[in-house]
Specification:
Elements: H1 8-19, H2 25-40, H3 44-49, H4 57-71, H5 76-80, E1 82-85, E2 88-91, H6 101-113, E3 120-124, H7 130-138, E4 143-148, H8 151-163, E5 169-172, E6 186-191, E7 196-197, H9 206-209, E8 218-219, H10 226-233, H11 235-238, E9 239-248, H12 254-263, E10 266-273, E11 279-286
Parallel strand pairs: 3-4, 3-6, 4-5, 6-9, 7-8
Antiparallel strand pairs: 1-2, 9-11, 10-11
Length: 289
Amino acid sequence: MPVNIQTLTDIRKLIKNELSQLYPEAEISSLSDIIIKTLLGTGRLHQLSYPDMVVSEEKRKKIEEIISELKRGRPIQYIFGETLFYSCVIRVNEHTLIPRLETEELVDLIIKENNGYQGDIIDIGTGTGCIAIALAKNIPGAHITAIDISAEALKTARLNAIYNAVQVSFLRADILVPDKIPCIPAGILVSNPPYVRDSEKNMMHMNVLDHEPYSALFVPDKDPLIFYRAILEASDKLISAGGKIYFEINESLGNEVAAITKKYGFRSTEVLKDLNGKERFVKGIKNGR
């Protein structure tokens, strides 16, 4: 890498030149914004207003190290150890899936449809805890239980709850062993389970495949609804009559998830699209007994 980097303009050019073969231009611009804002404390407006701002040698070397990690495919969120999610700062690591924009949309949907709710909420497959924490912050009257099979993910989620100053109950359990799941009849259940089929790996970027936890992403082609079915099979003890269920889904499996949700006693079942027009969510209401 060149050693004569002096200004913000030089740094942006460096990042663009070094990453141009790996990332699209829009993503490189976003990465530049994140790197410069995080290391130098300057937002996009300041960067545009003061392009000749001189950068110290120490910061320049750190930026070069970050570029090297990005070129090896490591996600920027793992490099910095955190990301923003629905106005919450969420710490991430290789034991946890990086929160996606679609999941923020799911959280937004739940908050808008349940403003003022004061009952129990269950989040299954919590990972970083991002869904549970955002809901706790925005539906303060709710009591939230977040479940995951991974001890390491739960460790991170607990730290995130503390970091964001919210109360969430965390529980280690395997939804595929429903007999081990405690009876918590909630008014709302949300889950963003693994839903990417093994055959879809070739459509994913290397920074996902090489760094994010496999078990949080993929399901076998022969049984892609395995986690949805397990949750629905346990729904009698997890969701009270009239309670709501919210799923994030594979865009290719909306009808299948909706059908199985109806099969297990949910009415008003809908498949909803995300902001990109992809079928990304299923919701329903538990029938009374």
